[in-house]
Write a structure and sequence with these properties.
CATH superfamily of the domain at 126-240: ATPase, nucleotide binding domain
Largest sheet: 5 strands, mixed
Strand order of the largest sheet: 7-6-5-8-9
Helix content: 40-55%
CATH architecture of the domain at 126-240: 2-Layer Sandwich
Number of strands: 9
CATH topology of the domain at 126-240: Nucleotidyltransferase, domain 5
Radius of gyration: 21 Å
CATH class of the domain at 126-240: Alpha Beta
Strand content: 15-25%
Distance between the termini: 38 Å
Number of helices: 9
């Protein structure tokens, strides 16, 4: 007969950290035994290393994995392992939505479509050469029209008609929008036209890999309700939206740091 101590045997808590250093924001996720216990988001800014240190504070870095554009910055200064954004998003999306087969991520300066199965990457396409169809494009166009980001989305969603936008290059599109304003076109109609032009760019990206249910939409642009609505109408599919779309990659990194995903 095996004898046990009268004290309860407690499961050892393993705290892991995932960092996603993007072009616009740094996402920081903390997990305990694969349970999300907290996260924070900060601007990447002109000194991402300093901002990174503020986020991780005095945490134990023995279980930390970094992803995103700036992952090698973390690798050099924090001596932590790194993984690609593609893998991080596949793992993170599968954690949040276990039946996920397609991941769409539109961030500050890139967009990607990932086909996944059981959290493993099957295929992907990525646009990281041009700001068209990304959060940066939205920011520039909103500013040109005199809107905040939230106002920009709401104005587009509330418009009954759209002004066609022929340019997808951020610089040329900005010039085109200025000309449309000078002609007296309605700002809300221009906003909807810009959202539709972004949608066309996204659909072209999705068309390169195809998609399967269920679709998880992550990244900062997933907070734009107009884009979500237009996507669902065009694809005739419902988007699965995380409560905080920006931390999907950081969750994936934290799970890999836990060793529960290879």
């Amino acid at each position: 007969m095996t004898l046990f101590s009268s004290k309860w045997l407690k499961e050892e808590l393993i705290r892991t950290v995932g960092i996603d250093i993007g072009s616009r924001t740094i996402k920081h996720v903390v997990m305990e035994n694969s349970n999300l216990i907290g996260y924070s988001i900060a601007d990447t800014g002109i000194d991402p290393l300093s901002n990174l240190h503020k986020l991780i504070n005095n945490e134990n870095l023995d279980h930390l994995v970094a992803t995103g554009y700036g992952r090698y910055l973390a690798h050099i200064h924090l001596k932590c392992p790194v993984i690609t954004e593609i893998k991080a998003y596949a793992v993170g999306a599968n954690f949040l939505f276990p039946n996920c087969r397609t991941v769409l991520d539109i961030g500050g300066q890139d967009s990607k479509i990932i086909r996944v199965k059981d959290g493993k990457v099957e295929d992907f396409e990525m646009n990281d050469k041009c700001a068209a169809g990304t959060g940066k494009f939205l920011e520039v166009m909103a500013t040109t029209l005199g809107f905040t980001i939230d106002e920009f989305s709401n104005a587009a969603a509330g418009s009954a008609s759209a002004v066609s936008i022929s340019s997808m290059c951020t610089v040329f599109a900005e010039s085109e929008v200025v000309s449309l304003i000078a002609r007296g076109e309605d700002r809300c109609s221009i906003a909807l036209g810009l959202h539709q032009s972004i949608l066309n760019r996204i659909i072209a990206l999705v068309g390169r890999t195809g998609f399967e249910d269920e679709i998880v939409f992550g990244g900062g642009v997933a907070k734009n309700r107009c884009i979500v609505t237009l996507l669902e109408k065009r694809l005739r599919k419902r988007m699965n939206l995380p409560k905080e779309p920006q931390i999907v990659g950081a969750i994936g990194a934290a799970l890999i740091a836990d060793g529960c995903v290879t």
